[in-house]
């Protein structure tokens, strides 16, 4: 035993998130009791957050390759070819537990971590998104958490200088004790200049880059792999502290360094910090790594080996470089006033050795730590889909219901949120948040643009994880398509409760099955991602939330579609409703928020029809025929048309003759549908083309005036709709929720 280290006890083992059988596996593997530092290293590498031990078996079933995929899962981020020698590099990751404990820093460092994942690959970040889920608005902590998380996302992203182009914000009581903060980033790189984390070569210097190491975040990855209890406030020290200005210098220094040819391998120090980055680099290359912690730059006195190995201090990288270029590399980092320290070397023995104050505090098999961590086939039970809707719904006033929905916590404008983000920095943004997808120009190319969207409907996933998983992919694909973009590839962030409960594991298994089937059918491979489990507090789990984010390519952004109606006197068409204009009310927002019911199955997703409808709509956009496009999702047809009117200030009349005028027509959430406007003269041709393509396209009304009229319902002025839509969020954040609710 190393002097002054605590004795290994069952309680200490349990506090490190290791089960008795896992600790026995450690004893069998190394043939002795681990040191305290080694116990911390195993805890970091074998926890759920780093090892994916509960989900790995199922993640392997997902489609991860395609004609444009350069790099799929397994690296810091996925890489996809966008032509002309360029690639888009992107990933989504969670920072859920830290953001609940300390919302500002938790969200800020979530943004910082995902940006590092992208520029570690050699890409300059060009876009960010975030998918946020909070508890019920009336819960005592929700407003505080919203305020802190939004400020953290904006504070880091704005200072770093990347536009936030889209995202989601949802409320549900099931997130009262465990919010979700999923952060997405994308960057651009030369397709032939991608940098990877696999160490190559023996006896080469391992170099520490960036900010100094402190005690912030020690044990963060282990904390993120456990449920919350009543001691949640005691976990505050495990939240990292970020500095976006240091990160910006780190970005510029890394990109400059990469141009020198010095870099062999590079890895972000994210979860589990120095431990995870060193082990992953060595294990991927089949090499050993030796670290000397006395050479690590620190900003706190008397740090132990354990603290240094498990610190999650931000803005740090680890690199293997060509020794003959070490001096040139050091000069780059000194110019940017960042630390550069050679802290170790690669070896040929596949051991992970850690030296501290002249003592070897760790000597472990590196492959078993990294690529060969435990993998579980946890018991699961197949979810039982909800039965059909029971008792009939009472009649409602369609106009009143629409006003209530567009002004509700679920469907009100998120302007209060996104106006706190810099959405225009870098000067390439083509659409502000609030539409179907964020769009940016590809800098340096005259016509090319990229579209980004993030989607999932957790209430669908709980009612039927398989259909909910399919729907998350389909809606992301649909939103990208609605801009005119070709969906290229996706990333996922699978947020679930405790996988040791068979019913929760069943949700994960069937959501992944649905996601995989949809990604295959839609040609939308998953190239990166993250799994966040144990999202529970005192045994109460979140709604299953498999967030999907995707990237699409627009060849000519001059023909990009927008949500707002383009002109008065145009025809409105509904695409993709072959049998019913909108009949599925099970699990709809209308059912929940107007009738206070959460029953019935979610709408099924017909992937063949989804692909056919989307390809048809994309063709209309690219040919310049569609003047405005919006997909139908939460709130159905009625809310979709209202959003198109509010975005443009142009009213619309939806005829009752073709589609009826009941609540199911306007608020059913049938999938695979788009609302679009075309010039009147183009309408007959569009309907003929649709028929030839086997796609349903029906004229449902016209644009014009200053009011929206749905079927036989009374007309509502667009200004009244906008007032209801825009007021809820700012009223709520001012503390006027009770008055607004009444």
Give a quick summary of the entry.
This protein has 742 residues and is α+β, with helices and mostly antiparallel strands. It is built from 27 helices and 28 strands. Helices cover 36% and strands 23% of the residues.
Show the helix and strand layout:
Elements: H1 10-15, H2 20-30, H3 36-46, H4 48-51, H5 56-59, E1 69-71, E2 78-83, E3 86-94, H6 96-101, H7 103-119, E4 124-134, H8 142-160, E5 164-171, E6 180-190, E7 205-210, H9 220-223, H10 244-258, E8 263-268, H11 273-285, E9 288-292, H12 305-310, E10 316-321, H13 326-335, E11 339-347, E12 351-356, E13 359-365, H14 366-369, H15 398-406, H16 415-418, E14 429-431, E15 438-441, E16 449-455, H17 458-463, H18 465-481, E17 486-495, H19 502-522, E18 526-532, E19 536-537, E20 540-541, E21 545-554, E22 571-575, H20 589-595, H21 607-622, E23 626-631, H22 636-648, E24 652-654, H23 656-659, H24 663-667, E25 674-678, H25 683-693, E26 697-703, E27 707-710, E28 716-717, H26 718-733, H27 737-741
Parallel strand pairs: 4-5, 9-12, 17-18, 24-27
Antiparallel strand pairs: 1-2, 2-3, 3-6, 4-6, 7-10, 7-11, 8-10, 9-11, 12-13, 14-15, 15-16, 16-21, 17-21, 19-20, 22-25, 22-26, 23-25, 24-26, 27-28
Helix pairs in contact: 7-8, 7-10, 8-10, 10-13, 18-19, 18-21
